[in-house]
Description:
This protein has three domains: 2-134; 160-296, Reverse transcriptase/Diguanylate cyclase domain (Alpha-Beta Plaits, 2-Layer Sandwich), CATH 3.30.70.270; 304-392, Arc Repressor Mutant, subunit A, CATH 1.10.10. 27% of the residues are buried. 63% of the residues lie in helices and 9% in strands. It has a five-stranded mixed sheet with strand order 2-3-1-4-5, sandwiched between helices. It has helices at residues 2-15, 17-21, 27-46, 55-66, 71-97, 100-150, 157-165, 191-204, 241-249, 270-282, 298-310, 316-327, 331-341, 346-353, 357-371, 378-392, and strands at 173-182, 211-217, 220-228, 256-260, 290-292. By secondary structure, the chain is α+β, with helices and mostly antiparallel strands. α13 crosses α14 (346-353), α13 packs across α15 and α13 (331-341) crosses α16. The longest helix is centred in the first third of the chain and has 51 residues, at 100-150.
Amino acid sequence: MAAAGEALQEAVLAEVPAFALSGNPAIVPSLRKHIGDHLREIRRLFGGGALDDFDFVRGYARMRAEQRFPLEATLNAYRCGQRTLSAWLREAAVASTGRAETVMSALADFSIEYTNTISTIATSEYVAHTRLLAEAEGDLRTELLSILLSGYDESDARVSQLLRRAGYLEQRLSYCVAVAQSVNASEMESPPRAQRIVSALSEAVSATSIRKLGGVRNNLSTMVFSDRRRQTGWTAPQTSLAERLHPMLLALGPAVLIGVSADHPSTSFIPKALNEAAIALDFARPAQRVVSYRDVPFRRLLAHHGTRHLQSVAPSWATTLVNADSKAHGSLIQTLRAMADADLNIQKAARSLGKHPNTVYARIARIRELTALDPQRYHDLTDLILAADCWRV
């Protein structure tokens, strides 16, 4: 048995490169033990033992699944081992009976059936355990993503340990969140469509060192990106993560709108980054598919944040102005913006509008009549434009 075990191990290592090339130091020792288990099982069967459920094969297959060792290599090892086992059995049969010809056929049948049986059992167990591992990993990633996006209590030892093991508490990392949806928002109600966008976000950065963790949240495909901000405390920071992501995310094509947050220095800021990404997504359009939070104009951000609070206490003239502007096909607010762009210069504003200055004066008079505010005064013009921006949002 010792000689047969050595011969079998040498044959497998010579003919199946995956064992020798694996970087896992436990691969070859576990192969050696598994060979011994097979030899003892075969000797037990030839000694008159009853067939059992080959539990040692199932355990080996589960271990190989956990090690991410390819199933094909294990099956090749079984096929390779069949020749060595057949030779060992023939020698043993001849030594004990002296009648080689009468047992050759039976030994060949046994060897083939034994190899087929252990291959079938190993394949079934490997596939089943791989699915369990994938489900467990998916559940862990989902939990991790939920913790990062929802925020967590830093005193919670379990959460801190989970984040530390996943590498999210390392120093000098930058974090950035991207949220995406189809141009046709109703498509996000289809889980496969939403998941395909998550996969596309992941594939967009697959050739880089950027780490990603994604899923579907509130009908939006959401991805947390992270990468090293600087190599050491003495080196200069690298380019903004959000800036590096922008051209990569454009590769997702015209059917997807994406909002990207600013960079943040720790996981505690990720809920804030999620909010920033969602706001940036509100400004994304087919003509500008990927919008970074930092690139949104300050005045538009101000209007976006303030609209919800201002509409309940808006001055009466705001509604009057908006309604009148609608009846005038947008010409009143267009004139206000032209005056702001022209630094209150009526002549310059008229030229930008392609109108006579008297037309601009007439519109100013109409706005003054509606609101009791004078667009030719800086503070009044600012209030009028901010109100118009809030109503547009």
